[in-house]
Predict the structure.
Amino acid sequence: MRDPARVIRLPVARDLAPAPATPPGSPDHHLFETEHGAHLLFVDGSRIYDLDDELRRALDGDPGGVAARLAAHGITSQHYVDDAPLVDPPLRALSLAVAQKCNLGCTYCYADQGTFGGEARDMSWEVAAAAVTKLVAGAGPGERVNLAFLGGEPLANRGVLRRATELGAALAAEAGAKIGFSITTNGTLVTDDDAAFFERHGFAVTVSLDGVGDVHDQLRPFQGGRPSYARIVANLAPLIARASRMQVTARVTVTPRNLDLPATLDALIALGFHSVGFAPMLSSPTGRDQLDDFGALLDAMIACGRSFESHVRAGRRYPFSNAMSALAEIHRGTHRPYPCGAGAGYLGVSAEGDLFACHRFVGDAAGALGSVEAGVDRARQRTWLATRHVHTQEPCRSCWARYLCGGGCHHEVLRRGRPACDFIRGWLDYCLGAYVRVSAAQPEYFA
Amino acid sequence: MTIEVKRPFPRNLTARAAYMVPGNPVTTRPEDAVANCYPGLELDVRNLDRRFFPGLVFEFVARADTGSPYTTPERYGALLSYVDIYDPDLQLDTPEARHLNDLLNNASQLATGDWYLDWVEQAGRRITMSWRRPDPTREDPARRQHERTPLDGLFVWRLVRSLEQGPVKLGLARRTPGAKPDAKPSATLELPGWRRRFTDASTGVVSAAYQPGELLQSLCSPWQHDFRDCACHYWASNHPDVVLGEVRPGEPTLPDGRSTDPVRGTLQLDWLRADRRRDLAGGAMNNIVKNRPFQFDHFQLNHDWQELAVVLQDQEINSVYVPRTADTAVPYATPAELAQVIRDQLAPLEMTLAIEYLYANFSVRDVPEADAARWPTMPGDVTFMRHQLLLTAQSEMLHLRWANELLWELYDAKLVPSYTPVLTPALQVPAPTPSGFRPRALAPLTPEAVEGFRFIEDPGGFIDTTYCRVVATLRRPEYPPHLIDLAQRVAADGVQHFSRFSDIKKTLRTYKGVTPANPYLRTIAVGTPEQTKAALDLFEKIRARLAVGYSLEARGQPVASGKPVGEARQVMLELNEIAESLARQGIGIPFWPST
């Protein structure tokens, strides 16, 4: 089961984007170099091999014969991912838009300041209770489900959030199932009592912070324009201090106005976050603060990655979550037909109790998948899963990065297309090299 | 120390999982092992079920076997051996586990007397562990049944085995010592719980409730004795019958890893031989009964099983295995190209070689014709050479069939559009000439001919490398996986042929430089079609019957193909006799027109 926080946090590179550096290349393999020599990503099964010079030269000199030469070494396609879409997956994670309203006025918000383009409203206790009951009812003894709170700003509806958490915990205990909780918050409303509550229930708390001081304040002011950074940092201290079962991570939305990622990363790690990750702003409803210079983004991400590598090689913790998840998935050889669990095991619930493919699709007919009351609309879900399979996507089906990327965030792809593929490939190409370097220097990192 | 890493080196987990380790075939993997249910060969399955219910450990008490009389039914059944309050299932943080844990911690009555499993209940259905046994001694037919007789432990075990993972309720009953089988229990206890999940759902690791060795206990001697005695091929995947002896580190080997010592490289030893001394090892005999007196007995097997050698690729090994270089042959690009190579090159070549070896075989004197007075070893030498030649020719005929089989299987898998039997010999064979080939030849077994045969069968030569490419091609996913074996066997046989011709070469040293030359040979020349009409007719008949048989195979009628192929085999025996008789008269069969 995927960690709910990871589903929601838009993990690693696959949502990211641009810089015409790494062409799609062969659909079946990708060659890359490190100081350890030549390497090959065999796309089927995301398998990674170290090559010798002779084979590398032979592959270079005979582009049409690569498959045959690799087959001679027993490296053949096994069709790890087939064309069959996922069918009727069990529900494993829900996010509740408990408050479709927000006290911040972020320039780029996908939810239009939490309202998703509609009226500001709270989720009723009845809707939340029905959603939680439905989620836990699908879990057998020992199985794990995840409940996430999003908005808007979920703490704007604190009462329902807490009751839903307690109901989920009680129902799961009764069923012998495990339940995890997560929240994505802007951090302005967190109280010491909230911190105690989150700790008690082992929450994964993600705080949105777009930089330090002014940088943050320009992008994430209160509605009305007052700065929010000082308030958030003051609220964070007790939260981070209490973190034991709970994990507190920072998520930075990257726009053209906060591209100094290495400085941001260092500063946020110094604040004591469990991890820090970046997600580029690919499509905002207004078009404001959307990223276009993906080359600069790639440079900044790689600079962070290099910093991560040097820390890891020195045996020091440096929780740059994009790099950590990318390396973990590359090590495991993750090969996915979808970018995330959205519309499959993970769904978003609107304040009215309708089900959507994820928290970002709330209120969007393109991602509507039934309601809590009537259940998942399996027909629509099958269509969704059939049409979102990476083998049906262009240009993904012929891209070497397709099983690591999964085709890119559905929401961004449907809104803006795929402007960032070169960035994703560039980032993955870097991460493949970083993986080889780290696994050669510090193999125990992957133990 | 620097370790030289072979490349391509699989670096991440999926690459490592997909790595095909050179060595033993897939049938030696644990998941392919032969495993029956009772008591089980890899583990005693009863040992899983003795802990089917968290916190309780049972022993299944049964008769010696199901044919034995029902003498002491009061002892039969699932006897509660002990309560294991440390069972990890009881420590689960669930209401059911806490409840069951409480019940068992307070069930002090279980410490006294003999408690048996009385019934189990799942999904509303209850199974009682007793039956009404016929009692023929009672006069009244209506009463010819015991009231209630405990089931044999083996039956109880099978009922327990049938439970599904999930909630289970069970009843325990304390039996009174000395009471009749149908006596009322002196106490009962009902416990709600669940049938254990034996392995972790995500990792497949066996439940920590089982102690190290617990699943294997009770196999011991029967397991080892069965390992020795079982004659129904149950152990086929992990019990070799005959093996080649060990090659010790530093000893010279052929390219396939066998010893260059012709005896050591070809002598098949009984793997279970009692006398493990290397220099005294004699060849295995051809059936179990003959080998038995020289094998481990039961007692020795119990004590010295660890002396039995690990076997890799038919060869015993006592040192660290160093994988040979992996197959680096380049696959053929398409099924059509593969089929063309088999059809136009390999299959015709196999047929030509079969005929050349046969011709050479008939050129060698038979024992009565050997000049034993002048050459005391000649009777033995010619026997050996004729035997080796005949074996090799037969092997080539088998290869001809396999080459055809590869073709018809490709056709069957719809990878090529048609199949026509290939039964026409090739015009040329590999030779150390500038072109790499020489015209086919019907020649007596001179030292030069032997050298030529060795060249043909040389590992790394044309045939070997071509078959390696065939194997590499068949490894690709679009081909039916079972074909790899066929092609690999042909490639492996080539090495054996090379060894045989090397042995023949050594035998011929005795006759080096003597006059008249090659005294072991008959005076023989290729005859005319008229002189050899009977033989040639038989040869044509063989080809025709094989063509019919192979065509039937290709049409998916392997049973029907048996008849014509059997007839061909019969005709081969007739041809052998006629050829031998012609050879004694100095006439060789012109299998093909002279060039």
User: Anything to note?
Assistant: Chain B touches chain A at residues 5, 7-15, 17-20, 92, 94-96, 201, 326-331, 333, 472, 475-477 (CB under 8 Å).
